[in-house]
Amino acid sequence: MKSVLCLDVGSTWTKGALIGHDGSLLGTAQHRTTPPEVMNGIAAVAEAVGGDLSGALVCSSAGGGLRLAVVGQERMVSAEAGYRVALSAGAKVVHVAAGELDGAGVRALRESSPDVVLLVGGTDGGETRVLLHNAHRIAANRLRCPVVLAGNAHAGQEALATLHSTKRTVVPTDNVLPDVGELAPGPARRAIREVFLQHVIGGKGLSRGPRFRRMVRAVTPDAVLRGVSRLAATLASGEDSSGAVLVVDVGGATSDVYSAVSTVDDDTPRRTVELPADRRTVEGDLGMRWSAPGVVVEAAAERLLAPGEEAALTSAALDRAADVGWIPEAPQDVSVDARIASLAAVVALRRHMRLVEGRMGPKGAGLLVLSGGVFRHASPSTLDTVREVLSEDSVLRPILRHARVTVDTDYVLAPAGLLSDTGHPQAADHLLRTRLISPE
């Protein structure tokens, strides 16, 4: 491999990293994303780092990323299985419906504005009524987004014909629940990713020509999750054999949490409806600017605030939500930002651990990675405070008791995921080892 340019095109920033053949980081740059022609910002980043666009590896979350709705048969089985598939597909689950869709259910599904609907239901050879009913409902209503059909194979052809009758994009794939208690997530995950790349990214009004759509290889969270999985494998191969990794990315509007607990290929069918080894959750009410008030509300609900802290922190959060471009300069404002970031991280991590049922292996996390501008630009003393808040939290303490905490200052997780997916795992491993496991 020669040097390769890895690009992450987000809604606000386009970030680039030039990676050497051995996985060394040769340079980084960023430029504001430039809709309606994102190629302008991409070209600026490429010029800044001296990278070649012709061989660039690109991921994107511009235009809101991948919004997924899951429609299943019974919430504790089909819909839950579909939701857990989405945990590792780089998608943000915006709606989950179970049972036969009625008028109110269709309206709620439409109002969630999904990019893709994952339609599941029934084991192979089992109940077909609910799956066929929901296929008819989706076909008959004004819901034009692509559908990934991953339900009972015995009803697959009829459901496919029903959905195709309205000339919508439908991608059939293997049942996510082929038998009772057996989860086979791999085919559905791959189908969701392909639908996003082929049918969604080009429809978000990000570029006038087809070049950008052809360049994009993954939705950004999917690339990051692949990087997190590779990081867990690299960690496990070293002196620390725990292999468990947690990443919390606190942004202006949302906080994302990623975890990887093993290097096992999770596409292998299992005899229980269990969690994927690598997973991601998105908290849309936790952020540093747009969602700062939500951080205070949820921190209060979780009893994380000191006596008398809520009123002052609420006022500060409302100010930040009213001026999302504001950058703190005074020490007191920086301190408040750090406090909001710490609380957002704690709440997001707590929610993630509840959803994944605390499954981080017998040793818990071996490495916790902090990501996002608030951490990347923080002073060493501020980061020490954040680490203390996280490690002393009563809920997180058992998970983080052996964890080393680091900051992804160069945003290398997405590039590592892109490299890993394109046949350069050794370069990905070297990048992660030198930047996150044993930074200089």
TrEMBL record:
Superkingdom of the organism of origin: Bacteria
SUPFAM superfamilies (alphabetical): Actin-like ATPase domain (SSF53067)
InterPro entries documented for this protein: ATPase_NBD, MutL
Record NCBIfam families: glmL_fam
Protein name per its UniProtKB record: Methylaspartate mutase accessory protein GlmL
Source organism phylogeny: Bacteria, Bacillati, Actinomycetota, Actinomycetes, Pseudonocardiales
